[in-house]
Amino acid sequence: MSKGHIVEMGYLDEIKEKYVLCSTKEHIQGYLYKKTNDENIYLCKKEEAKGDIQPANFETIFEALVKGGDKI
After folding, report:
1. Phi, psi for 53 (deg, rounded to 5)
2. In whole angstroms, what is the distance from residue 71 CA to residue 35 CA?
3. HEC letters along the chain
4. Is 7 left (phi over 0), alpha (psi -120 to 50) or beta?
5. Tens digits of residue pLDDT in 18-44
6. Which distant-in-sequence residues (6+ apart) come within 8 Å of 64 by Cβ?
7. Quick one: pLDDT band at residue 67, thresholds 50, 70, 90?
8. Burial of 12 (0-12, 13-18, 19+ CB in 10 A)
9. Would you say the C-alpha torsion 29, 23, 16, 49 has a positive or negative sign?
């Protein structure tokens, strides 16, 4: 991931296995998907995830592929 943009090649299923959504108060490297009053929700690689972790969905992965750093 570079500046919130997924820069990997491959099938979406393979990319989905490498990325997760995580909720954290910290700023981490990844695609800022949503902000709430208490925390930020990022799409990031599994090994960089902190806080509450959920599986990534295709909609969020597609948004990071297309929009990338627009939300960072």
Report:
1. -115, 135
2. 10
3. CECCECCCCCCHHHHHHHEEEEEECCCCCCEEEEECCCCEEEEEEHHHCCCEEEECCHHHHHHHHHCHHHHC
4. alpha
5. 999 999 998 888 889 999 899 999 999
6. 1, 4, 5, 6, 31, 33, 43
7. confident
8. exposed
9. positive
Which one is predicted more confidently, 42 or 63?
42
Q: Which residue has the higher pLDDT, 53 or 7?
A: 53
pLDDT at 12: 82
> Taking the model in full, what pTM does it have?
0.78
